[in-house]
Amino acid sequence: MTTTMSRRHRVVVIGSGFGGLFAAKRLRRANVDVTLISRTTHHLFQPLLYQVATGILSEGEIAPSTREILKRQENVQTLLGDVSAIDVNARTVTSEAGGVRTVTAYDSLIVAAGATTSYFGNDDFATYAPGLKSIDDALELRGRILSAFEFAELEQDERIRDEWQTFVVVGAGATGVEMAGQISELSHRTLRNDFRAIDPRRSRIVLVDALDDVLGSFGSKLSNSAAHQLEKLGVDVWLSEKVVEVDERGITVEDKSGLRTRIQSRTVVWAAGVKGSDLANSLAAQTGAELDRGNRIKVQGDCTLPGHPEVYVIGDMMSLKGYPGVAQVAMQQGKYAADQIKRHIGGKARAEDFHYFDKGSMATISRFKAVASIGDRLRFGGVIAWFLWLVIHVLYLVGFKNRVTTVLHWAVSFLGRGRSQRTTTNQQLVGRNAVRAAQLPDNADPALAERDERTERDQAADRPQPAAKG
Ligand SMILES: Cc1cc2nc3c(=O)[nH]c(=O)nc-3n(C[C@H](O)[C@H](O)[C@H](O)COP(=O)(O)OP(=O)(O)OC[C@H]3O[C@@H](n4cnc5c(N)ncnc54)[C@H](O)[C@@H]3O)c2cc1C
């Protein structure tokens, strides 16, 4: 496919996340043609992914169609495509979807391709410990978590039943804390009367981090408060423990003295790290911009790349003045980049460098429990922080319908004990690893082969042995 040539200034936006969507929307009245290219057809509200993973919300509520959001904005064309190449000299973006290769020319480019899960060089951990970055991840985790209770109910061997009823969350940042809190609520409230052979309230939830604090970025007062609230929920918090092994039946952690401890668990959630999109590598190689340790590209003060004032890189895949990887930075940079483009086509001088306005940060721990940090001084936890969190998240959800159904589902889960989204499918459970194996040459995935072999061995060992004839 070739795109039609336009006489207007052509802006290409890569990504339909917070940065890309806010940039495209800001260009609504500008005299430009915008092409928004993304590998997903939705705009994903990542802060609520953990609620999809734990059956509170449906995926549609947090991932509205980008095409629908932008349907009234006539200067935008939305294209599905995985961007495989950006040529900053030819000023083209190459993307692929459904076997169709599309080359789109630009005059200005906004790259907002976000970040992916980082296993800190241990990519084999991914087989057994999914991250939480996409709808696929959330649905797989929902399948794994809810199935763990089902498998525990079936299991006769107490040792294996305990493994099914042990949940490990790696990473004590906001996502890890939210996941651990919600798995605890599932066990203690939602599922407590649903099983006959097992008692879901006996489940063990372990939150592990290599660092010394829970929610370290919130400061020591809120960090201690969060750790205390988690303990009250029955979550085991293991700090200063680095994960050194992950396999199908658990993880091994190592403390600072080198002492290793094994935690047997069939469900491990990886919420420990992110790294900038691979597109950062190609842009760095072409422009001489540096990459930081998190594979984020170092941008100039105006979010552009050296020697390329027409290329903006924003959001989670860029590094600037230590700004955090949060939605507000991406949204503010999206608007900033769009405004700079408008100034450029209007013949005005560039505005001053980008400055992030920090509106504060929040994390929920469970029902009625949250922490909030606003400005340098205002830090508080508990019910007020939790209500504030609810209001702000509803306001930022895109789409009126989504807001209404989200509030209804929250009422079901937080006022009652139910979860409206407990459906899981086998495809969600096996899909990611099946796709991964299919993409490898001759389907050889050593981790999967090893897992299959080990499962067979375990099953043979677990099978009752025939009684000796006497
Ligand atoms: C579980 C979780 C919880 C979070 N909670 C919070 C929170 O409570 N508060 C907060 O402020 N922030 C939170 N964040 C961080 C926040 O979501 C990110 O900072 C924000 O999404 C970054 O926006 P972005 O536009 O840079 O990237 P993203 O929103 O990740 O968007 C990236 C876009 O690029 C597309 N894309 C990627 N690669 C390609 C490619 N090669 N070709 C085409 N398209 C591509 C993706 O499909 C996506 O549309 C959370 C993140 C996660 C994962």
From TrEMBL:
The chain crosses the membrane at residues 378-398. GO terms for molecular function: NADH dehydrogenase (quinone) (non-electrogenic) activity. It is an enzyme of class 1 (oxidoreductase). InterPro entries: FAD/NAD-bd_sf, FAD/NAD-binding_dom, NDH-2. It catalyses: a quinone + NADH + H(+) = a quinol + NAD(+). Keywords: FAD, Flavoprotein, Membrane, NAD, Oxidoreductase, Transmembrane, Transmembrane helix. Residues 448-461 have a biased composition (Basic and acidic residues). Residues 10-334 form the FAD/NAD(P)-binding domain. Gene3D superfamilies: 3.50.50.100. Its EC number is 1.6.5.9. Belongs to the NADH dehydrogenase family. This is NADH:ubiquinone reductase (non-electrogenic).
